[in-house]
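Example record

One chain of 243 residues, shown exactly as stored in the release files.
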Amino acid sequence: MPSTAPVIRPKSQPVNAHKEESPISYDINIPYVDVNGETTARTRYPEYLPTWDKMWFDPLPPFHYDDPALRVEDRSKPNLLTPEAKVTEIQPKIGTIIEGVQLSQLSDAAKDELALLVSERKVVAFPAQDLIDAGPEAQEQFMRHFGKPNYQPVSGTVRGHPGFHIIHRDGNKEEISRFLSQRTTTTLWHQDVSYEIQPPSYVMLGLLEGPEVGGDTVFAATDMAYKYALFCSNLLIPQDYGD
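Predicted structure tokens for this chain:
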């Protein structure tokens, strides 16, 4: 279930004020403190720091969606998987690492092939991308090729780019301590906005800064979990185990 989104508090109220009966957030990645000058000075990417500007979005009406993956005619993906690309599959049904490809340099045809690859492999990782340093505007323009931006009202966003969902922990020590007072692990599970009528088809996750050890993100192929759950329930369904 989603946590309560941070709100802009009156200046007379301390930023870190908590009532004893206030619930503990389910997500320690959401800081309940304002970003200040000290926080800004500590990061290499101040343009990505979360902001809590008040915004209102009307309910999104149903819309027609053209999946770019359906535009691909050559499933070998020659525009994306060039001879310079090194492809490593992580698991049989999920996860691929591609090295030697810069997302910022992809043609529209290559982006369509990327959509198809993501549809097939669920999670595709591209190490050492210059798109991170290109800034929020460049990333948003890249993702608009894959569909409308999705707005999640549960976290801070990049100012001027509400489609960003910022995971930021600097300056959040008090909230982290409260979180761990009720738990023995920081491991959390969630499924992105599956409650929406038209949930996002594609999501880009970029790591700006992280610890040398820990901070891992684990992905699960829920479609395969569903198939195997049916299998274990003695229901006959088609299975594709590959070659």
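Notes: The chain has a mean pLDDT of 81.
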